[in-house]
Design goal:
Blueprint: E1 18-19, E2 27-31, E3 39-40, H1 43-55, E4 60-66, E5 76-83, E6 87-91, H2 100-106, E7 110-113, H3 116-125, E8 132-135, H4 136-142, H5 150-158, E9 160-162, H6 178-189, H7 191-204, H8 208-220, H9 243-263, H10 267-270, H11 273-282, H12 287-290, H13 305-316, H14 340-343, H15 345-365, H16 369-372, H17 375-384, H18 389-395, H19 400-416
Parallel strand pairs: 2-9, 3-6, 4-7, 7-8
Antiparallel strand pairs: 1-2, 4-5, 5-6
Helix pairs in contact: 1-2, 4-7, 5-7, 9-11, 9-13, 15-17, 15-19, 18-19
Length: 420
């Protein structure tokens, strides 16, 4: 169980920062103690940073900034590192694209990130892979904190307030303003103190081993494969019931994606999802019709009306057999839980019983239900009713601590309600 959430009494690495008294009881962090770090964008600069980082010891705080909503894809436009004794390093991964030597200099040092699942894929693209990992956001969830944003945890545990004014900035901007570099530096300068505070609380709650298993699983888990039909995530696509119009939407989505990639723009800056849905519903046949679709033909993108009309016409000409289905790819796995009573009363009873016990276990352990066991895994096991539940959980990727806590619940539910 987790103790009371009192602010961590001291942030040992934050003395000397420019601060002000806050009426809210938190001390705002305004600038790094060593001044605004420069943006390193040369090989010589990276070599100097490697010397600094490699000469120090202990965990390394890392973060990365992207330009989501501005640029195509999820590449990193800034990488921040902080190590006690080395200070903060800001690297431009657009100018220096291979950061493998930086990772090599860190050796087997523990990497400390917040919400590591968001940053690890981009760092791996730059040649950076951790030997060990500590995720402060995940640690907060395992401790039962209802909100686990970096700013919230820093306030709760360290007593500082982080400014988040530039969290949604276009980090592809060059040169980076001083205030942006201050913001980026402070994000990693608090991470090591936050890590220490969370480590203490994990130990007090008896969750050190649980956290270690979750961190390692996060470190070695590959990124998910690309979606088979990403166009189906177009906002508002559920409004379209006609399969021919769905084909038009798919064709327009692919056309927009090609333009976005060529111009290095976020797809929404080429044409909004709502614009694509409107065009798919209207199915314009000529340039005059296209003028009624606001936001599709724009001077700033340079895409002519003929380009969009061609995409629409391609979908018009598809044979019926090539049209997309209304519901998308066939569901894999057990049916939705609402259908279980009519498909298998025993399975439905297993699910009801196990859900109640897992929910109570989550309360007792102060761990979110989804971290005790993935709901999809629970449903699959309770539907299949395997003889060896622990083996089934192992094959599904459950960690030892999850198998130990949740395995008996699933096994008991299966034993109490056998058969299909």
């Amino acid at each position: 169980m987790v103790g009371d959430f009192r602010p961590y009494p001291c942030a040992v690495g934050l003395e000397g920062k420019t601060v002000e008294t806050s009426d809210g009881g938190l001390t705002p962090l305004l600038s790094p103690p060593g001044g605004t770090p420069p943006l390193i964008d040369t090989l010589d600069g990276v070599r100097d940073a490697i010397v600094r980082l490699g000469a120090s010891a202990g965990p390394v705080a890392l973060d990365a900034e992207r330009a989501s909503g501005f640029r195509y894809g999820q590449r990193d436009y800034l990488v921040q590192l902080n190590r006690r004794g080395a200070g903060t390093v800001l690297i431009d991964p657009i100018a220096v694209t291979d950061l493998g030597p930086v990772a090599d200099a860190l050796g087997d040092a523990e990497w400390v990130l917040h919400a590591a699942a968001e940053d690890l894929p981009g760092l791996q693209d730059l040649g950076m892979r951790p030997a060990t990992l500590f995720d402060t956001e995940l640690a907060g969830r395992l401790l039962g904190y209802p909100r686990t944003s970096l700013g919230t945890l820093v306030g709760e545990l360290l007593g500082y307030r982080l400014a988040k004014a530039h969290s949604a900035a276009d980090w592809s901007t060059r040169p980076l303003p001083d205030s942006w570099r201050d913001y980026a530096a402070l994000d990693v300068e608090v991470l090591l103190d936050l890590r220490d505070a969370l480590e203490e609380r994990l130990a007090a709650a008896g969750k050190t081993e649980i956290a270690a298993q979750e961190f390692e699983a996060l470190r070695v888990t590959p990124p998910p494969p690309p979606r088979a039909e990403p166009w189906r995530r177009t906002s508002g696509s559920h409004q379209i019931r006609d399969t021919r119009r769905l084909a038009v939407l798919r064709s327009l989505w692919n056309a927009r994606d090609a333009v976005a990639q060529r111009l290095d723009l976020a797809p929404g800056r080429v044409a909004a999802d709502s614009t694509l849905v409107h065009a798919a519903e209207a199915m314009p046949r000529n340039a005059q019709d296209l003028r009624h679709i606001k936001g599709l033909v724009r001077r700033d993108t340079g895409v002519p009306a003929s380009y969009w009309l061609s995409a629409i016409e391609d979908a018009r000409r598809l044979p019926r057999s090539a049209l997309p289905t209304q519901r998308g790819p066939m569901r894999v796995g057990p049916p939705p839980p609402r259908l279980w009573p009519e498909r298998s009363q025993a399975a439905a009873e297993r699910l009801t019983e196990a859900r109640q016990q897992i929910a109570q276990l989550a309360v007792d352990q102060s761990i979110p239900v989804e971290y005790l066991a993935l709901p999809a895994m629970v449903r699959q096991i309770l539907w299949d009713a395997p003889e060896d539940v622990e083996e089934a959980m192992l094959e599904a990727g459950a960690r030892p601590w999850q198998r130990q806590l949740v395995g008996p619940i699933l096994a008991d539910a299966i034993a109490a309600h056998p058969g299909m």
